[in-house]
């Protein structure tokens, strides 16, 4: 992908973008696992991109120089949540992501079974996390990688 961007740019042109870094929330890996158990291939760009060092290596291999990767971690969002509702909201948000087109091709019956499986597992995980928190709160945190690179 980065080679394609490199080819499009003129000499001295800059590529600038941002991307979330996995895990987006503590339940994100669980969400991908449940979907993949159903045989749906999910592109996990956050894992492909990985760390800032891996991002720098991938862009360098594509021919970019002056690569800068900044990590912007939002403060943890700590709050009381209803675990089942939170899981359902995550599932519905996932259906709208471009990384899950195969999921939308499944029958509504299969989608409902996967959603129920995910919400059950997510509820258990969220309850455990809230029990382990001294204030009984659930926390998630979004970390964004801001990237700039130049074509020499």
Automatic annotation (TrEMBL):
InterPro entries: SAM-dependent_MTases_sf. SUPFAM superfamilies: S-adenosyl-L-methionine-dependent methyltransferases. It comes from the Eukaryota. This is Uncharacterized protein.
